[in-house]
Amino acid sequence: MILDAAARLLRCLPAETAHSLTVSLAATAAPLLPRAPADDPRLAVTALGRRFANPIGLAAGFDKNAVAAKAMGKLGFGFVECGTVTPRPQAGNPRPRLFRLAEDGAVINRMGFNNDGMARAADNLRRARAPITGINIGANKDSTDRIADYVTGFRALAPLADYVAVNISSPNTPGLRGLQNREELTRLLDSLTGARAAMQFVPLLLKIAPDLDDAALDDIAQVVLAAGIEGLIVSNTTIARPALRSASADEQGGLSGKPLLASSTRILGEMRRRVGSKLVLVGVGGISSGADAYAKIRAGASLVQLYTALVYEGPGLVARIKCDLLALLARDGFASVMDVVGADIA
Q: Is the whole model's pTM more than 0.85, yes or no?
């Protein structure tokens, strides 16, 4: 596949240079890209008031400014999540800040919410979107009122998206993960749902960290159920460092990719046990095959997302995962992917 060959060539460039070039090329080439073949109906998922043609989504972090959503939608994703977007533009952390760990199938990033701000993202979303597009919102690093930042971003971007993901779990903005604490999280979600009450309804999802203990998971489950939001994205990158072989393993930042699969899937299952089917769960972290996606779905995810694996496998991975999922459904006697959700959770 031409696109996969291009991905191999891009890996010869420094990581952030390759990423920026990929996004620019995708945005430019969007009108020329053929649309992926129609998906098998067995892969369809109904969630968040929408019908997803398949459960495979592009995670936030790839298309921070929503310039390439239409192109990525054409590659066969069931949905595309753009961002993280902050109210004001910010440059992010000093370079270098993105590191490939090829021997581990992983990436470490400490980007720091580098983006062009909500006004630019809104303009881009008005011009072109994927069929189902989410927007991931965050707070500016120098903000004196981070909850106000989330409300500002939500009001500006929610009308242009199919759902809004609230990112309070990035390890690369100092103090941000403190918003996962019970009191702060209650204030945040009350503010966001209050803002939403005055607007056209848009589903709200909270993106959480994989580095949470049982008490924190209990608190989050209780708060989100009481707040009346629609879902959880489990999970963001990790600050943990499992056994890694790559030279960049000691770099600071959030680790994503294959080493995150086990821990993020465990947290996903723990949240499924706590919230049951009352919330839509999106499984993220370490997916690089149909078997990985299937494990997330069996642990309670109605939808899944990937990003890091594309760095190593190329965009052809999306079609391979969907093919593998169909084979796994047939092997286990399931009529559709929706029948698998939470199958491993007692």
A: yes
